[in-house]
Design brief:
Elements (H helix, E strand, L loop, with lengths): L20 H4 L4 E2 L5 E5 L9 E2 L6 E2 L4 E4 L8 E2 L4 E10 L7 E9 L22 H10 L12 H4 L8 E6 L8 H8 L1 H15 L3 E7 L3 H10 L6 E6 L8 H9 L14 E4 L1 H12 L6 E7 L7 E6 L4 H7 L9 E4 L6 E2 L13 E5 L18 H5 L6 H9 L3 H6 L10 H5 L6 H67 L3 H9 L4 H20 L5 H20 L5 H27 L4 H26 L4 H5 L1 H21 L2 H10 L5 H23 L6 H9 L1 H21 L6 H10 L2 H19 L5
Parallel strand pairs: 1-14, 9-10, 9-12, 10-11, 13-17
Antiparallel strand pairs: 2-8, 3-5, 4-7, 5-6, 7-8, 13-14, 15-16, 15-17
Helix pairs in contact: 2-5, 4-6, 5-6, 5-8, 11-14, 15-16, 15-17, 16-17, 16-18, 17-18, 17-19, 18-27, 19-21, 19-22, 19-23, 19-27, 21-25, 21-27, 22-26, 23-25
Length: about 775
């Protein structure tokens, strides 16, 4: 039943000598399996397949030997059973003449197929959903068999509503007859494939466009499609390139595909008759695409005919099946004389897009002639079926002005060759267009690579910047935490006890070892404090005095343990030495006159207090000593010696100060010295009475013995008189000499050593 009566045409085109009768006189022959199959991994548009097998594996017919890699990709299947002998680059049939990875199978002659198909055959097509059909078509490796090689499953998932399915049976290229014989001999399988496609894309009708020079095929298709009202066989005029996708659409529907557009934009899907049959075999019989019909023709072939050959069969094998060459071929082409490309050798394998092998004799085709200058006749423009401007595109392509050529819709050119066929100057226009397209594609690819590299670089810089910001923030947080911890530590340090106080509190422990350790820690803490004292000499002298006081406190607080007393005495000597060193450094700094006076006063006071403490410690040792006149005599001698040492050392600082300032008779200095002497005497008197308190025996002895009390009072009076007599008297020559020597650091050190010796003599008096 006719669903459409009106035909539309397209402009341009040519009437050629088709010569299809050379290969249509013989039915399609089933080609035997060759000794070796060469299966390229890239037989389709898109990414090459990834090998699943390795060298040495045995494979079976229909087995998947390479998986699809990416969305626009298809698997590859073994055409026969055998052993994988190589997976390596081999020359493939392509216009570039380059090599590509191939899987080589050495046939074992058994042609053994898989016992169980990789998916289930479908008895009822309508029971399958569209996604299942698409998946199986993809797993079967079905691609467009008309020449483009586009994966067919993508066309089965248009994503837009489809109104009409068009089967392109025009086959307008001269010499090629594979689709014509396929439609004539296997029309039922083609109609079955059409029904599967209609069910998948939900299209309402199908138009089979076929040229009027294929009468057998027209009759077979009409008979096969008679039972399905959705399918109509439409006979179109024979004109080249009627088989072009856009030209056939325009002829059948009157619609013109927009520039750089797709038939899907018009609600149309176009398929090849061989592709429809492959879809049927994949769904109904669970058979992958492992063979196709190939036309072997040309005047150089003995018996041109069509073969149903396994994909991967070498071309020379099919030529030999056709009787071989009658004469060495002048040109060997894959495809037709208009759109085909030359092959370097006949050992190349056939692939899914191989529809014809053309071997021409000399003079059979238009000979290649040297190009002459363009005469601007415009014949190319009249013949162009796309309504382009071939002449202008040629000039821009020749001048490498690819932007201008592209602005003239260069990529709409289908490379049909009509312009070159009618050119009187024999200019190979199609070659110029192909070269320009290749250059533009290369530039676009380089641009994409550059853009990707720029994006990676920018992403790297952004990442580095983020990492730097993160590091800065981390450092800022760490700095803030450190500042906060320091701020929190300052109040705690202010409220914490000093090392000397901590040592003094630790001494109260009953453990003598713990007390010794605490005293050592206190002196160790005091030593850095003395070294780090500011430049103020008074502060340094006070620090030294405090260190000596701490040492004396730790020494007097010891218990009766002789070991602890010995350790404390040693530590006291070390603290005194550190204090004397600090005082020596202070004197070397040569302070001013006012500072010298303060230093001298502080040193005199410290020495007087030390002498008084030594005398007080040496007085009462025990009750038996107080009653012993010998012991009392020894104690009196020690007290006199300590007083003399104090008398000798106290005026040293004032004399040195007088020598420095030149004012020895300063009444203020004499008053200070007298006050200090009186204070030392009072301290000595108090110290002489205080030791009797610890034990009742000593206290009773001191109270009952009037001699002891008289001796202590006499000693205190004598010390006071000696100190008072020293302060107001003029400095004698010996004292002046001593004062002069105080400027010498060695002399000062000797005097300090003598004072320490006197203190030790007083402190080392045995006490039980």
């Amino acid at each position: 039943m006719s669903l459409m009566t009106r035909l539309f045409g397209f402009r341009g085109g040519l009437h050629l000598d088709y010569r299809k009768e050379m290969s249509t006189g013989t039915p399609i022959q089933i080609a035997p399996v060759p000794p070796q199959l060469i299966l390229p991994l890239s037989q389709h548009a898109g990414n090459p397949a990834k090998p699943r097998v390795k060298v040495g594996d045995r494979v079976l017919r229909g087995q998947t030997i390479a998986d699809a890699d990416g969305f626009v990709s298809l698997p590859v299947h073994a055409g026969t059973s055998g052993i994988v002998s190589a997976i390596e680059p081999r020359p493939i049939p392509h216009a570039s003449g380059l090599s590509a990875p191939c899987i080589v199978i050495d046939a074992d002659g058994k042609d053994e197929a898989l016992a169980t198909p990789e998916w289930e055959p479908a008895e009822d097509i309508n029971a399958l959903d569209a996604q299942t059909i698409r998946d199986r078509v993809r797993r079967a490796g079905v691609s467009g068999l008309g020449g483009a090689g586009f994966p067919s499953f993508i066309k089965l998932a248009p994503g837009h509503p489809v109104e009409t399915l068009i089967i392109n049976g025009a086959e307008c290229e001269p010499y090629i007859s594979c689709d014509q014989l396929l439609m004539a001999e296997r029309a039922d399988e083609i109609i079955g494939g059409i029904q599967v496609i209609l069910h998948t894309i939900r299209a309402g009708r199908c138009l089979i466009g076929i040229e009027d020079n294929k009468s057998w095929a027209i009759a077979a298709l009409k008979a096969a499609a008679a039972a399905d009202q959705r399918i109509e066989v439409v006979v179109v005029p024979t004109r080249y390139p009627q088989g072009g996708e856009k030209q056939l659409i325009q002829t059948l529907t009157g619609l013109e595909v927009p520039s750089r557009g797709l038939p899907l934009d018009l609600g149309l899907v176009v398929q090849n008759p061989g592709t429809a049959r492959a879809v049927w075999r994949a769904i109904r019989h669970a058979e992958p695409l492992t063979s196709r019909v190939v036309t072997v023709t040309g005047s150089a072939v003995s018996h041109p005919q069509n073969f149903d050959a396994r994909i991967g069969t070498p071309m020379r094998f099919l030529i030999d099946l056709a009787g071989g060459y009658t004469t060495p071929p002048d040109r060997l082409l894959m495809g037709g004389p208009m759109m085909g490309f030359a092959l370097p050798t006949d050992t190349l394998p056939i692939v899914k897009s191989t529809n014809c092998i053309l071997a021409t004799a000399p003079g059979e085709l238009r000979p290649d002639e040297d190009a002459m200058p363009c005469i601007r006749c415009g014949a190319c423009q009249d013949a162009c079926p796309i309504n382009l401007l071939p002449q202008q595109m040629y000039w821009h392509a020749r001048g490498k002005e690819y932007d201008k050529a592209q602005s003239l819709n260069l990529f709409d050119c289908i490379e049909c060759g009509c312009c070159a066929q009618v050119c009187p100057s024999h200019i190979p226009l199609v070659q110029y267009y192909r070269h320009a397209k290749t250059e533009i594609w290369s530039e676009q690819q380089e641009k994409r690579k550059a853009d990707a590299a720029r994006e990676r670089h920018e992403a790297r810089l952004a990442r580095i910047e983020r990492e730097e910001r993160a590091k800065e923030e981390a450092r800022a947080r760490k700095k803030a935490l450190l500042a906060a911890s320091q701020a929190a530590a300052k109040p705690a340090a202010a409220t914490a006890p000093s090392p000397v106080e901590a040592s003094a509190s630790a001494v109260g422990n009953d453990d003598p070892v713990a007390r010794a350790i605490a005293a050592a820690k206190a002196k160790k803490a005091a030593a850095p404090a003395a070294d780090s004292t500011s430049d103020d000499p008074v502060a340094r002298a006070i620090a030294a005095a405090k260190a000596k006081k701490a040492a004396a406190t730790s020494g007097t607080a010891e218990t009766d343990d002789p070991v602890a007393r010995a350790i404390a005495a040693a530590k006291a000597k070390k603290a005194a030495a550190n204090a004397d060193a600090a005082a020596t450094n202070t004197k070397r700094a040569k302070p001013s006159a006012a500072d010298d006076e303060r230093i001298a006063a502080a040193v005199a006071a410290a020495q007087a207090r030390k002498a008084a403490k030594a005398a007080a410690a040496a007085q009462p040792q025990a009750t038996t000593e107080a009653d012993d006149p010998v012991a009392r005599a020894i104690a009196a001698a020690q007290a006199r010696k300590a007083a003399q040492s104090a008398d000798a050392s106290v005026p040293a600082a004032p004399q040195s100060s007088s020598a420095t300032t030149g004012d020895a008779d300063d009444p203020v200095a004499r008053a200070i010295a007298a006050a200090q002497a009186r204070k030392a005497a009072k301290a000595a008197a108090v110290a002489s009475e205080s030791p009797s308190a610890p034990t009742p025996a000593t206290n009773n002895t001191a109270d009952e013995d009037p001699v002891a009390r008289a001796v202590a009072a006499a000693k205190a009076k004598k010390a006071a008189k000696a100190a008072a007599a020293v302060a107001p008297e003029p400095v004698p020559a010996a004292a002046s000499e001593t004062s002069a020597q105080t400027d010498d650091p060695v002399a000062r050190a000797i005097a300090a050593a003598k004072a320490r010796k006197a203190a030790r003599a007083a402190g080392e008096t045995p006490t039980e």
